[in-house]
Protein backbone atom coordinates (compact mmCIF):
# COMPACT_ATOMS: atom_id res chain seq x y z
CA UNK A 1 0.00 0.00 0.00
CA UNK A 2 1.49 3.33 -1.09
CA UNK A 3 1.53 6.64 0.81
CA UNK A 4 -1.32 8.04 -1.29
CA UNK A 5 -3.45 5.01 -0.42
CA UNK A 6 -2.81 5.67 3.27
CA UNK A 7 -3.69 9.34 2.83
CA UNK A 8 -6.85 8.43 0.92
CA UNK A 9 -8.14 6.03 3.60
CA UNK A 10 -7.23 8.58 6.26
CA UNK A 11 -9.25 11.15 4.31
CA UNK A 12 -12.28 8.83 4.27
CA UNK A 13 -12.02 8.37 8.05
CA UNK A 14 -11.71 12.14 8.58
CA UNK A 15 -14.80 12.82 6.47
CA UNK A 16 -16.75 10.17 8.41
CA UNK A 17 -15.86 11.66 11.79
CA UNK A 18 -16.56 15.22 10.60
CA UNK A 19 -20.01 14.25 9.36
CA UNK A 20 -20.73 12.68 12.75
CA UNK A 21 -19.40 15.83 14.45
CA UNK A 22 -21.64 18.20 12.47
CA UNK A 23 -24.81 16.12 12.58
CA UNK A 24 -24.73 14.67 16.08
CA UNK A 25 -22.54 17.09 18.06
CA UNK A 26 -23.14 20.54 16.58
CA UNK A 27 -26.60 19.34 15.60
CA UNK A 28 -27.55 19.40 19.29
CA UNK A 29 -27.72 23.19 19.01
CA UNK A 30 -28.55 23.50 15.30
CA UNK A 31 -31.75 21.43 15.57
CA UNK A 32 -32.65 22.57 19.08
CA UNK A 33 -36.08 24.14 19.42
CA UNK A 34 -36.31 27.10 21.72
CA UNK A 35 -38.31 26.31 24.84
CA UNK A 36 -40.15 29.42 25.95
CA UNK A 37 -39.61 30.15 29.62
CA UNK A 38 -41.59 32.35 31.96
CA UNK A 39 -40.10 35.72 32.80
CA UNK A 40 -38.64 35.88 36.28
CA UNK A 41 -38.43 39.12 38.20
CA UNK A 42 -35.50 37.96 40.30
CA UNK A 43 -33.12 40.67 41.52
CA UNK A 44 -30.07 40.87 39.24
CA UNK A 45 -26.69 42.56 39.60
CA UNK A 46 -25.14 43.48 36.24
CA UNK A 47 -21.35 43.48 36.54
CA UNK A 48 -19.23 45.64 34.24
CA UNK A 49 -15.46 45.74 34.74
CA UNK A 50 -13.70 48.59 32.94
CA UNK A 51 -10.04 49.49 32.53
CA UNK A 52 -9.38 52.67 30.53
CA UNK A 53 -12.80 52.48 28.87
CA UNK A 54 -13.95 56.10 29.13
CA UNK A 55 -15.19 56.36 25.56
CA UNK A 56 -16.95 53.00 25.61
CA UNK A 57 -18.65 53.71 28.93
CA UNK A 58 -20.20 56.86 27.46
CA UNK A 59 -21.36 54.94 24.41
CA UNK A 60 -22.59 51.63 25.80
CA UNK A 61 -23.56 52.14 29.46
CA UNK A 62 -26.85 53.94 28.61
CA UNK A 63 -28.11 50.77 26.87
CA UNK A 64 -27.66 48.82 30.12
CA UNK A 65 -29.24 51.54 32.24
CA UNK A 66 -32.24 51.57 29.87
CA UNK A 67 -33.03 47.86 30.38
CA UNK A 68 -36.73 47.08 30.80
CA UNK A 69 -36.36 45.17 34.05
CA UNK A 70 -37.86 46.05 37.42
CA UNK A 71 -35.22 44.92 39.88
CA UNK A 72 -31.58 45.30 38.89
CA UNK A 73 -28.47 47.16 39.87
CA UNK A 74 -25.33 47.89 37.86
CA UNK A 75 -21.99 47.31 39.56
CA UNK A 76 -19.34 49.37 37.77
CA UNK A 77 -15.80 48.28 38.53
CA UNK A 78 -13.04 50.76 37.77
CA UNK A 79 -9.96 48.57 37.45
CA UNK A 80 -7.22 51.12 38.17
CA UNK A 81 -7.98 53.11 35.03
CA UNK A 82 -5.61 55.87 34.03
CA UNK A 83 -8.12 57.69 31.84
CA UNK A 84 -11.40 59.39 32.76
CA UNK A 85 -13.33 56.13 33.37
CA UNK A 86 -13.93 56.72 37.10
CA UNK A 87 -15.26 60.25 36.60
CA UNK A 88 -17.64 59.03 33.90
CA UNK A 89 -18.87 56.28 36.23
CA UNK A 90 -19.44 58.85 38.96
CA UNK A 91 -21.36 61.08 36.55
CA UNK A 92 -23.71 58.22 35.62
CA UNK A 93 -24.07 57.17 39.28
CA UNK A 94 -25.11 60.69 40.27
CA UNK A 95 -28.10 60.39 37.91
CA UNK A 96 -29.10 56.77 38.56
CA UNK A 97 -29.52 55.37 42.05
CA UNK A 98 -29.18 51.72 40.95
CA UNK A 99 -25.51 52.19 40.01
CA UNK A 100 -22.83 51.07 42.45
CA UNK A 101 -19.15 51.95 42.02
CA UNK A 102 -16.19 49.80 43.00
CA UNK A 103 -12.89 51.63 42.58
CA UNK A 104 -10.03 49.13 42.49
CA UNK A 105 -6.46 50.20 43.17
CA UNK A 106 -3.52 48.17 41.96
CA UNK A 107 -1.81 46.15 44.67
CA UNK A 108 1.46 44.29 44.29
CA UNK A 109 0.01 40.77 44.71
CA UNK A 110 -2.63 41.22 41.97
CA UNK A 111 -1.11 43.93 39.78
CA UNK A 112 -3.17 44.35 36.61
CA UNK A 113 -5.24 41.23 37.32
CA UNK A 114 -8.84 41.57 36.10
CA UNK A 115 -9.92 38.61 38.24
CA UNK A 116 -8.99 40.51 41.40
CA UNK A 117 -11.09 43.49 40.28
CA UNK A 118 -14.02 41.25 39.35
CA UNK A 119 -13.87 39.48 42.70
CA UNK A 120 -14.21 42.81 44.53
CA UNK A 121 -17.14 43.72 42.28
CA UNK A 122 -18.87 40.40 42.88
CA UNK A 123 -18.46 40.78 46.63
CA UNK A 124 -19.98 44.25 46.43
CA UNK A 125 -22.99 43.07 44.42
CA UNK A 126 -26.25 43.21 46.35
CA UNK A 127 -27.98 40.35 44.58
CA UNK A 128 -27.20 36.64 44.21
CA UNK A 129 -27.88 36.47 40.46
CA UNK A 130 -25.04 38.08 38.51
CA UNK A 131 -25.02 39.06 34.83
CA UNK A 132 -21.70 39.95 33.20
CA UNK A 133 -20.77 41.99 30.17
CA UNK A 134 -17.85 44.13 29.05
CA UNK A 135 -17.60 47.91 28.90
CA UNK A 136 -17.48 47.80 25.09
CA UNK A 137 -20.64 45.68 24.79
CA UNK A 138 -24.20 46.74 24.07
CA UNK A 139 -27.31 44.63 24.68
CA UNK A 140 -29.23 44.42 21.40
CA UNK A 141 -32.56 44.93 23.16
CA UNK A 142 -34.08 46.25 26.36
CA UNK A 143 -35.05 42.67 27.26
CA UNK A 144 -31.45 41.45 27.65
CA UNK A 145 -31.66 41.07 31.44
CA UNK A 146 -35.16 39.57 31.20
CA UNK A 147 -34.08 36.91 28.69
CA UNK A 148 -30.87 35.92 30.48
CA UNK A 149 -32.49 35.92 33.94
CA UNK A 150 -35.37 33.75 32.70
CA UNK A 151 -32.97 30.80 32.29
CA UNK A 152 -32.10 30.70 35.99
CA UNK A 153 -33.84 28.09 38.10
CA UNK A 154 -33.26 26.16 41.29
CA UNK A 155 -30.89 23.82 39.44
CA UNK A 156 -29.59 26.12 36.71
CA UNK A 157 -27.09 28.52 38.27
CA UNK A 158 -24.98 29.24 35.17
CA UNK A 159 -26.35 30.74 31.95
CA UNK A 160 -24.27 30.96 28.76
CA UNK A 161 -25.23 33.73 26.32
CA UNK A 162 -24.09 34.89 22.90
CA UNK A 163 -21.79 37.88 22.47
CA UNK A 164 -21.91 38.93 18.81
CA UNK A 165 -19.78 41.43 16.91
CA UNK A 166 -20.98 44.33 14.80
CA UNK A 167 -21.07 43.69 11.05
CA UNK A 168 -18.77 45.80 8.89
CA UNK A 169 -19.44 45.78 5.15
CA UNK A 170 -16.69 44.75 2.73
CA UNK A 171 -14.33 43.65 5.50
CA UNK A 172 -12.88 40.16 5.28
CA UNK A 173 -11.37 40.49 8.77
CA UNK A 174 -14.83 41.29 10.15
CA UNK A 175 -16.25 38.15 8.55
CA UNK A 176 -13.35 36.10 9.92
CA UNK A 177 -13.85 37.43 13.46
CA UNK A 178 -17.59 36.83 13.34
CA UNK A 179 -17.09 33.35 11.85
CA UNK A 180 -14.70 32.36 14.64
CA UNK A 181 -17.11 33.80 17.23
CA UNK A 182 -20.02 31.93 15.63
CA UNK A 183 -18.21 28.58 15.53
CA UNK A 184 -17.05 28.99 19.13
CA UNK A 185 -20.59 29.78 20.31
CA UNK A 186 -22.13 26.86 18.40
CA UNK A 187 -19.58 24.54 20.00
CA UNK A 188 -20.04 25.69 23.59
CA UNK A 189 -23.83 25.79 23.20
CA UNK A 190 -23.87 22.29 21.67
CA UNK A 191 -21.61 20.72 24.25
CA UNK A 192 -23.51 22.41 27.08
CA UNK A 193 -26.71 20.79 25.80
CA UNK A 194 -24.86 17.44 25.69
CA UNK A 195 -23.98 17.85 29.37
CA UNK A 196 -20.36 18.86 28.72
CA UNK A 197 -20.17 22.64 29.23
CA UNK A 198 -16.60 23.83 28.87
CA UNK A 199 -16.60 27.61 28.38
CA UNK A 200 -18.56 30.84 28.14
CA UNK A 201 -17.74 34.40 27.11
CA UNK A 202 -17.61 37.32 29.53
CA UNK A 203 -19.41 39.56 27.02
CA UNK A 204 -22.63 37.76 27.90
CA UNK A 205 -22.54 35.40 30.86
CA UNK A 206 -24.54 34.89 34.04
CA UNK A 207 -24.10 32.88 37.22
CA UNK A 208 -25.01 33.12 40.88
CA UNK A 209 -22.81 34.51 43.60
CA UNK A 210 -23.41 31.23 45.44
CA UNK A 211 -21.89 29.30 42.50
CA UNK A 212 -18.96 31.70 42.40
CA UNK A 213 -18.02 31.18 46.04
CA UNK A 214 -18.76 27.46 45.85
CA UNK A 215 -15.96 27.24 43.26
CA UNK A 216 -13.71 29.44 45.42
CA UNK A 217 -14.05 32.20 42.86
CA UNK A 218 -10.99 32.55 40.64
CA UNK A 219 -8.56 31.24 43.25
CA UNK A 220 -7.62 28.05 41.37
CA UNK A 221 -6.48 30.08 38.36
CA UNK A 222 -5.85 33.54 39.83
CA UNK A 223 -2.23 33.51 38.65
CA UNK A 224 -3.39 33.08 35.04
CA UNK A 225 -4.14 36.62 33.90
CA UNK A 226 -6.81 35.67 31.35
CA UNK A 227 -9.79 33.34 31.65
CA UNK A 228 -12.07 35.15 34.08
CA UNK A 229 -14.92 33.83 31.94
CA UNK A 230 -13.95 30.56 30.21
CA UNK A 231 -11.66 29.16 32.93
CA UNK A 232 -14.28 29.80 35.59
CA UNK A 233 -16.98 28.10 33.51
CA UNK A 234 -14.60 25.24 32.65
CA UNK A 235 -14.16 24.64 36.37
CA UNK A 236 -17.63 25.37 37.77
CA UNK A 237 -20.05 24.24 35.04
CA UNK A 238 -21.40 20.70 34.92
CA UNK A 239 -24.18 18.69 33.29
CA UNK A 240 -26.83 19.80 35.79
CA UNK A 241 -26.14 23.46 36.64
CA UNK A 242 -25.72 25.02 33.17
CA UNK A 243 -28.28 26.42 30.73
CA UNK A 244 -27.93 28.33 27.46
CA UNK A 245 -29.79 31.41 26.23
CA UNK A 246 -29.93 32.12 22.50
CA UNK A 247 -33.03 34.24 21.93
CA UNK A 248 -32.15 37.21 19.74
CA UNK A 249 -33.19 39.67 22.44
CA UNK A 250 -30.58 38.14 24.75
CA UNK A 251 -27.56 38.93 22.55
CA UNK A 252 -24.92 41.53 23.25
CA UNK A 253 -22.91 43.18 20.51
CA UNK A 254 -19.36 44.55 20.50
CA UNK A 255 -17.25 46.46 18.03
CA UNK A 256 -14.66 44.02 16.63
CA UNK A 257 -11.00 44.64 15.99
CA UNK A 258 -10.37 46.34 12.67
CA UNK A 259 -6.70 45.47 12.24
CA UNK A 260 -5.26 41.99 11.76
CA UNK A 261 -2.43 42.69 14.21
CA UNK A 262 -4.83 43.60 17.04
CA UNK A 263 -7.06 40.60 16.37
CA UNK A 264 -4.05 38.29 16.18
CA UNK A 265 -2.83 39.56 19.55
CA UNK A 266 -6.30 39.09 21.07
CA UNK A 267 -6.58 35.51 19.80
CA UNK A 268 -3.12 34.69 21.16
CA UNK A 269 -4.43 35.48 24.65
CA UNK A 270 -7.56 33.38 24.16
CA UNK A 271 -5.74 30.35 22.80
CA UNK A 272 -3.11 30.50 25.55
CA UNK A 273 -5.92 30.25 28.12
CA UNK A 274 -7.37 27.08 26.57
CA UNK A 275 -4.33 25.03 27.63
CA UNK A 276 -5.60 25.34 31.22
CA UNK A 277 -8.95 23.65 30.46
CA UNK A 278 -9.79 20.24 31.88
CA UNK A 279 -7.87 17.48 30.11
CA UNK A 280 -10.91 15.92 28.42
CA UNK A 281 -11.94 19.31 27.07
CA UNK A 282 -8.47 19.98 25.70
CA UNK A 283 -8.42 16.61 23.95
CA UNK A 284 -11.88 17.24 22.50
CA UNK A 285 -11.04 20.71 21.16
CA UNK A 286 -7.67 19.60 19.83
CA UNK A 287 -9.35 16.69 18.02
CA UNK A 288 -11.87 19.01 16.38
CA UNK A 289 -9.06 21.24 15.12
CA UNK A 290 -6.93 18.31 13.89
CA UNK A 291 -9.84 16.81 11.92
CA UNK A 292 -10.56 20.20 10.31
CA UNK A 293 -6.91 20.64 9.42
CA UNK A 294 -6.60 17.11 8.03
CA UNK A 295 -9.75 17.44 5.96
CA UNK A 296 -8.44 20.41 4.00
CA UNK A 297 -4.79 19.38 3.78
CA UNK A 298 -5.65 15.85 2.59
CA UNK A 299 -8.16 17.22 0.09
CA UNK A 300 -5.50 19.49 -1.39
CA UNK A 301 -2.83 16.75 -1.51
CA UNK A 302 -5.08 14.09 -3.05
CA UNK A 303 -6.47 16.46 -5.66
CA UNK A 304 -2.98 17.73 -6.47
CA UNK A 305 -1.94 14.16 -7.31
CA UNK A 306 -5.36 13.44 -8.90
CA UNK A 307 -5.61 10.33 -6.73
CA UNK A 308 -9.16 8.95 -6.96
CA UNK A 309 -10.10 12.54 -7.60
CA UNK A 310 -13.74 11.81 -8.45
CA UNK A 311 -14.31 10.13 -5.09
CA UNK A 312 -12.28 12.78 -3.26
CA UNK A 313 -14.37 15.55 -4.80
CA UNK A 314 -17.59 13.69 -3.98
CA UNK A 315 -16.62 13.15 -0.35
CA UNK A 316 -15.42 16.74 -0.03
CA UNK A 317 -18.72 18.06 -1.39
CA UNK A 318 -20.68 15.69 0.84
CA UNK A 319 -18.88 16.96 3.95
CA UNK A 320 -19.39 20.61 2.88
CA UNK A 321 -23.10 19.99 2.22
CA UNK A 322 -23.51 18.43 5.67
CA UNK A 323 -21.68 21.41 7.16
CA UNK A 324 -23.92 23.88 5.32
CA UNK A 325 -27.05 21.96 6.30
CA UNK A 326 -26.15 21.96 9.99
CA UNK A 327 -24.70 25.45 10.17
CA UNK A 328 -27.63 27.04 8.33
CA UNK A 329 -29.93 26.40 11.29
CA UNK A 330 -27.33 27.73 13.72
CA UNK A 331 -26.67 30.90 11.71
CA UNK A 332 -30.42 31.58 11.68
CA UNK A 333 -30.58 31.22 15.45
CA UNK A 334 -27.60 33.52 16.01
CA UNK A 335 -28.44 36.02 13.25
CA UNK A 336 -25.25 35.38 11.24
CA UNK A 337 -26.80 34.09 7.99
CA UNK A 338 -24.65 36.33 5.79
CA UNK A 339 -21.57 34.26 6.72
CA UNK A 340 -22.87 30.97 5.33
CA UNK A 341 -21.70 31.64 1.76
CA UNK A 342 -18.10 32.25 2.87
CA UNK A 343 -17.73 29.18 5.08
CA UNK A 344 -15.05 27.18 3.21
CA UNK A 345 -12.79 30.21 2.68
CA UNK A 346 -13.24 31.47 6.24
CA UNK A 347 -12.65 28.01 7.66
CA UNK A 348 -9.34 27.60 5.79
CA UNK A 349 -8.13 31.06 6.85
CA UNK A 350 -9.12 30.41 10.47
CA UNK A 351 -7.33 27.05 10.54
CA UNK A 352 -4.12 28.64 9.26
CA UNK A 353 -4.44 31.60 11.65
CA UNK A 354 -4.92 29.28 14.63
CA UNK A 355 -1.89 27.22 13.61
CA UNK A 356 0.21 30.39 13.33
CA UNK A 357 -1.03 31.61 16.72
CA UNK A 358 -0.28 28.24 18.34
CA UNK A 359 3.30 28.33 17.00
CA UNK A 360 3.74 31.94 18.16
CA UNK A 361 2.51 31.06 21.64
CA UNK A 362 5.12 28.29 21.85
CA UNK A 363 7.83 30.86 21.12
CA UNK A 364 6.67 33.74 23.34
CA UNK A 365 3.95 34.50 25.88
CA UNK A 366 1.07 36.78 24.84
CA UNK A 367 0.12 39.95 26.72
CA UNK A 368 -3.03 40.01 28.83
CA UNK A 369 -5.50 42.44 30.52
CA UNK A 370 -4.43 45.90 29.37
TrEMBL record:
Enzyme class label: transferase
Protein's name in the database: Glycosyltransferase
PANTHER family linked: POLY-BETA-1,6-N-ACETYL-D-GLUCOSAMINE SYNTHASE
SUPFAM superfamilies: Nucleotide-diphospho-sugar transferases
Species, as recorded: Hwangdonia seohaensis
InterPro entries attached to this UniProt entry: Glyco_trans_2-like (IPR001173), Nucleotide-diphossugar_trans (IPR029044)
Transmembrane regions: 6-26, 283-305, 341-363
Keyword line: Glycosyltransferase, Membrane, Transferase, Transmembrane, Transmembrane helix
Domain Glycosyltransferase 2-like stretches: 45-179
Sequence similarity: Belongs to the glycosyltransferase 2 family.
UniProt-recorded Gene Ontology molecular function terms: glycosyltransferase activity
Coiled coil residues, start to end: none
EC code: 2.4.-.-
Amino acid sequence: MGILDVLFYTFIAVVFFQVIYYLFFLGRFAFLKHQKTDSKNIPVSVIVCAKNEAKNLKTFLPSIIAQDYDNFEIVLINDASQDDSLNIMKAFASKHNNLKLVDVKNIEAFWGNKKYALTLGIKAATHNHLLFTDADCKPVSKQWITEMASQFSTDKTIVLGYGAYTKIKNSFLNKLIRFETLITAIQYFSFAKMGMPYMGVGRNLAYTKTEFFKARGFMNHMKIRSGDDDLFINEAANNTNTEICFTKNSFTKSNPETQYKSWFRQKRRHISTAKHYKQNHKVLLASIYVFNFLFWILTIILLAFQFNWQLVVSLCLFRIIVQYFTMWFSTKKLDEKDLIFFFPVLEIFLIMAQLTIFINNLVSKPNHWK
